[in-house]
Task: inverse folding
């Protein structure tokens, strides 16, 4: 396997463009043959959600270096095969198919968009491959669209939405609007949020969806200002999060309504600065989670990346890789027929606490976190401070569902 190189602070902050500038490091065409455990990662490394894919790439590379330095898994080194999909589902399927046919890849992770994941999962049985999600939010992946060889180690969109909704039960907000990205994850999370708000007996006044890569959010912000809502729920990521929050600050939207969100990456906090201060957000992962394993992980990350702390999807990717390690070790194999039952009912205790891979729908049952974008000594930009930790059984939906009963 090609060794993971330590990235400088400058190259990490440079984002998608810098990291893709030298793709020869990880392209599947240069993957080394041999007795390695190959993990395929078709990623949106460029495009509107390229910053998310770059986080997944860094998280996987960091974990791969860490595990290989310890002898790998079952005495075999891990090898990553990474290709850029630009967030296109058809391209994602094609790249994954090439990995299977040319390099006998049977393990997948990191597929960035839920629309890409939904296109991949029908092919898993044909490929005899296991796919463990590290970021896909669409609730259907562990509900109506579940296939036997798919597992989700990360917090789902419904779970993130549920965490914010539970927090809102203690607030006085009465009228809500939602703005989501116009693809699978955005629609799914907004649907769950609408249902949660109505279940609370509060008013859901409207919703709107923006295409990924929207540059000008002014018409959406005007609609929000005119909606009469006292809070807006955002289901945005990557460049779209950056653009909306920066423009919302120009229009002083936060003075008229509370800004709530399903996620807010550190990369966005760096980009928009104080414009995000005070936002209340569900965190799939935050470097501020207070447990010994997370503190150890953060220190290891800082040493590797020149003092930087890990971002949301970097932490989620690490957790996903830890599920791979535990599952493969338990199975004694990477073969789907052996790995699948090993992953079912598997529990790890890691950077977010305990994660239990539920047998009935392959969802990783885990705690929920609500954070507030806050100032912190030693940081020039806001960071996610944990303000609520919610029990796993409160934020995880019933088996094979993406809605809640209470």
Result:
């Amino acid at each position: 396997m090609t060794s993971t190189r330590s990235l400088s602070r400058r190259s990490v902050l440079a984002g998608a463009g810098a990291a893709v500038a030298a793709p020869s490091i990880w392209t599947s065409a240069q993957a080394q043959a041999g007795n390695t455990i190959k993990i395929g990662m078709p990623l949106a490394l460029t495009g509107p959600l390229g910053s998310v894919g770059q986080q997944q790439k860094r998280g996987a590379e960091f974990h791969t270096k860490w595990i290989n330095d310890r002898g790998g898994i079952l005495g075999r080194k891990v090898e990553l095969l990474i290709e850029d999909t630009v967030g296109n589902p058809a391209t994602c399927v094609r790249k994954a198919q090439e990995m299977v046919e040319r390099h006998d890849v049977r393990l997948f992770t990191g597929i960035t968009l839920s629309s890409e994941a939904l296109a991949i999962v029908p092919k898993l049985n044909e490929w005899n491959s296991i796919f463990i999600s590290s970021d896909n939010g669409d609730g259907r992946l562990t509900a109506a669209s579940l296939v036997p060889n798919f597992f989700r180690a990360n917090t789902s969109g419904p779970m993130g939405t549920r965490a914010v909704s539970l927090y809102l039960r203690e607030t006085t907000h009465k009228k809500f609007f939602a703005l989501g990205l116009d693809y699978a994850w955005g629609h799914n999370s907004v649907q769950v949020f609408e249902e949660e708000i109505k279940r609370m007996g509060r008013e859901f006044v409207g919703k709107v969806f923006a295409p990924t890569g929207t540059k000008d959010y002014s018409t959406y912000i005007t609609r929000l200002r005119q909606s009469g809502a006292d809070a807006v729920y955002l289901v945005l990521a990557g460049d779209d999060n950056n653009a909306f929050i920066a423009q919302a600050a120009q229009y002083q939207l936060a003075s008229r309504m509370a800004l709530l969100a399903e996620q807010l990456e550190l990369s966005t906090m760096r980009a928009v600065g104080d414009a995000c201060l005070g936002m209340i957000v569900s965190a799939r992962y935050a470097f501020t989670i207070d447990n010994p394993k997370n503190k150890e992980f953060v220190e290891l990350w800082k040493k590797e990346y020149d003092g930087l702390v890990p971002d949301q999807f970097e932490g989620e990717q690490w957790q996903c890789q830890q599920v791979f390690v535990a599952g493969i070790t338990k199975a004694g194999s990477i073969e789907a027929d052996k790995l699948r039952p090993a992953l079912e009912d598997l529990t790890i205790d890691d950077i977010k606490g305990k994660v239990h891979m539920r047998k009935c729908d392959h969802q990783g049952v885990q705690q929920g976190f609500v954070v507030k974008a806050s100032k912190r000594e030693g940081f020039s930009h806001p960071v996610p401070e944990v303000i609520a930790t919610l029990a796993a059984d409160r934020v995880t939906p019933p088996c094979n569902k993406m809605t809640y009963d209470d």
The chain has two domains: 9-155+290-365, 158-283+368-395.
